[in-house]
Amino acid sequence: MPPRLIDLFCGAGGLSLGFEIAGFEVRAAVDSDPVAAETYRRHNPMVPLVTDNVERLSGEDLRELAGGQVDLVVGGPSCQGFSTHGKRDPNDPRNFLFKQFVRLVREIQPAWVVMENVKGLLTYGRGRYRDEIHQSFHRIGYRIESRVLRAADYGVPQLRERLFFIATRTTNPISFPPPTHCPPDSSSLTGLAPYVTVREALGDLPPIGEEGEALSYLSPPWSHFQQYARTKAPSALSLHRARRVSDMAMSIIRRIPPGCGIRAIPPEDLPERFRRMRTISTGQLRRDCTTLYYRLSWDRPSRTITCYFTNVSSGPFVHPSDNRALTPREAARLQSFPDYFDFGEKQVQRQIGNAVPPLLAAAVAREVMKKLLGARGRTRRTEPQLASV
What is the pLDDT of residues 233-250, one digit of tens each? Predict the structure, then answer.
């Protein structure tokens, strides 16, 4: 029997898909977002899914839904107030959903726990919230370690970084997956595979120009990643359509070469508003805005895919050769979702941008699987030191 898990804050299903790839069986899932839940149900019709606020759920409810005790609880409780890609707000109520996650872990008592979150937790308040999460798990009898993992290190064509927490109440050591990929110039020294590039990820998708949609593949899959992406793929592409670029934005991105942003254009050649933006009060050029109107390079992984990938002015989302933003299908591939994955028609950008890359999740899952199927440590039955978290 494969190890069983419950996915809290499951979203569209990136974590669940990754753990299924590694051999886990998802027995129950929870998310309060009805749009993401619709996508999750579409791809996991046999998994009981609760669309409700976790504050109204108990561990007993979820164990019953899962058909008994589970080996693992996974999830990514939102901490958007700490994200480096948005306005940081320490009072954002979503920052404290991890307390409900810890409460449910205490009530369910799985042997292992995997929680992922934004990298900003490490630095906000000098790591105060990361430390609070560690302490909360210690109080309920779990050992815990955390580490930032880069998606590109595990075969995802994206330089996304996420903070992972792994906790256990067994005596087995906690470990994180070793990288399987590395920058190309280090590959011969390390013996690891080179990073998956944007070309390897998207090279079989048809160009659609400045605005349009395509339903047919450009070529048969010619890279290992494309073969993965087209597993169980439908005969027609979905979500491969571009958003119209404004005339002003077009005047900028037409002049930006691959692997560069707006800073590649001399200030005097920019529209007035951007000339003002390029300097600070001393008259010197700003050192930030490096990914504004950034055009991806075919020969590197992409930068982090966010919910704003259809807007060329919001970050590193300009297609490597077309004068347009990424399509949802291209962004989903850069997140390592297979082409069969259907996000529906509602809030597609948010679903894709908020998701955990499945291949990154699969790497973490395989590391936990080793603990569950290898030399099993003794499960500790220590009672929690505190009744609350």
Answer: 888 899 999 989 999 999
Domain region containing 62:
4-181+354-373
Question: How many CB atoms lie under 10 A from the CB of residue 210?
Answer: 14
156 is a domain residue: yes
Query: Could you tell me if residue 16 is inside a domain?
Result: yes
Q: What is the DSSP letter of 268?
A: G
Q: Please give the DSSP secondary-structure letter assigned to residue 79.
A: -
CA angle 301, 305, 308 (to 5 degrees): 145
Residues 274, 87, 159, 227, Cα dihedral to 10°: -100
Let me know: does 75 contact 14? Beta carbons within 8 Å.
no
Per residue in 195-233, pLDDT tens? 999 999 999 999 887 777 889 999 999 999 999 999 998
d(CA 372, CA 379): 11
Give the burial class of 255: count Cβ atoms within 10 A of its Cβ; 0-12 exposed, 13-18 middle, 19 or more buried: middle
Residues taking part in catalysis: 79
- What is the pTM assigned to this prediction? 0.90
Closest by Cα among 230, 181, 182 to 202: 230
pLDDT in tens, 124-172: 777 888 999 999 999 999 999 999 999 999 999 999 999 999 999 999 9
Q: CATH code at 155?
A: 3.40.50.150
Tell me how many domains the chain contains. 1
Give dist(CA 310, CA 318) in Å, integer. 9
